[in-house]
Amino acid sequence: MSVVHLRLSINDDRPGIWTGLSFDSVQFSGGSPVAIDEHNDSATRRAVSRCPFMRAVRAFSLIELLVVVAIIGVLVGITLPVLSRARRLAFTARELAAGQQIMTAYACYAQENKDAVLPGYLPLSWVSNPPTPGAPEFVVEDEQRERVYGTQAQRYPWRLWPFLSGDFRGLYKDEDLLKNYRSRSDFQYFVSLSPTFGLNSMFVGGDATLDRKGFSASAAQQYGPFYISRIDQAQRPCELLVFASAHGVNPDGGDLVSGFFRIDPPRRATGAEWWTPGSDLSTNPAAGGYVDFRHSHKAAAAFFDGHVNLAGYNQMLDMRLWADRATRPDWSLNTN
Questions:
Q1: How crowded is residue 95: how many other Cβ atoms within 10 Å of its Cβ?
Q2: 3-state helix, strand, coil in the chain (%, to 5)
Q3: pLDDT digit string (tens) for 183-203?
């Protein structure tokens, strides 16, 4: 450790007036005093440089600081888009994996039900309470093994969740939405409303709503068996859409929610376009059949043979993707 002794002298031309001070010499411990000569700059610098407390400390200039800030800004500008893209890819990968999981459950349902596929949207008479006389009775149960009746039983989620290890997280990738629904007294109803994937119920499994013509004897007589009801009926399983990313109306109002129990084809019986090209799908999901193209303008699509990939809007307009009987992109039930 160095000990420094400084001898000072005060320069005062007039009595009682402070004018400054100067160092006459610097002495380090174990050494002789070194005189500081104000007329000899080199000698002064050598003396001062030997004192660790008097050496000049070099700081960054303003230009250097600005250059560093600019470099950091450029690096942030490069990194943020990369991180954002990585998050989007991870989100897409998770949803594709969820689609495969749902298709596994879908196959398990068929295996447990003698190769009958999951019905899309059941007739209300099949799940009414009390049962409708003369109508088939379809038993649907919730997590507590309580019977589920009405609209929530007509939709597919309560009939598929037992084949997802009884865990609704297999149907809901939006865990905040699922948590919100669980907090409601009418959980049975709302959890059936907004699963991540919508089902192509009109052409796979059948849909009992009037304009989708499923489970109707008159429609079957007019159109023949136009929807798949058994595993062995599909002629083009690798091309037949079963589930796709969906979005629908928020029951609490406001923005749409990322999920809906149904997806609808671009054409129905009449052949007229049902989808509305050019519509703002973020406010009117029905204009795009409730399909949500949330993965860089593509939707996760799960097919009858179990594979899952991404499909864009124009690809989804092709009716051959929706109906096993379709022979051309603009096919409808009335097509000869």
A1: 20
A2: 35, 15, 50
A3: 999 999 999 999 999 999 999
Q: Are 152 and 158 spatial neighbours (Cβ–Cβ below 8 Å)? A: yes
* Eight-state DSSP code of residue 26: E
Residue with tokens 């997802």: 164
Residue whose C-alpha is closest to residue 154's, from 118, 197, 130: 118
pLDDT of 308 > 70? The answer is yes
Q: Find, among 117, 132, 328, 310, the residue nearest to 206 by Cα.
A: 117
User: What is the torsional sign of CA 204, 207, 212, 215?
Assistant: positive
Contact 264, 182 (CB under 8 A): no
Asked whether residue 111 carries a pLDDT value surpassing 50, the answer given is: yes
Closest alpha carbon to 168 in 156, 185, 151, 186: 156
Helix boundaries (H) for the chain: 41-49, 62-112, 151-154, 157-160, 175-182, 187-191, 217-223, 313-316
Q: Residue 19: its pLDDT value, please? A: 46
Query: N- to C-terminal Cα distance for the chain?
Result: 102
Q: Within a 10 A sphere around the Cβ of 80, how many other Cβ atoms?
A: 10
Distance in angstroms (rounded) separating the CA atoms of residues 336 and 224: 12
248, 260 in Cβ contact below 8 A? yes
39 Cβ neighbours under 8 A, 6+ residues apart: none
pLDDT digits (tens, 9 = 90+) for 44-93: 555 555 555 555 556 778 888 888 888 888 888 888 777 777 888 899 99
pLDDT average, residue stretch 221-235? 95
More confident call, 232 vs 44: 232
Measure the CA–CA gap between 202 and 188, rounded to whole angstroms: 23
- Single pTM value for the model: 0.77
Cβ proximity of 23 and 51 under 8 Å: no
Q: Tell me how far apart the alpha carbons of residues 329 and 266 are, in angstroms, rounded to a whole number.
A: 10
Contacts of 270 (CB under 8 A, 6+ apart): 332, 334
Task: Give the integer Cα–Cα distance in Å for 124 and 142.
Answer: 17
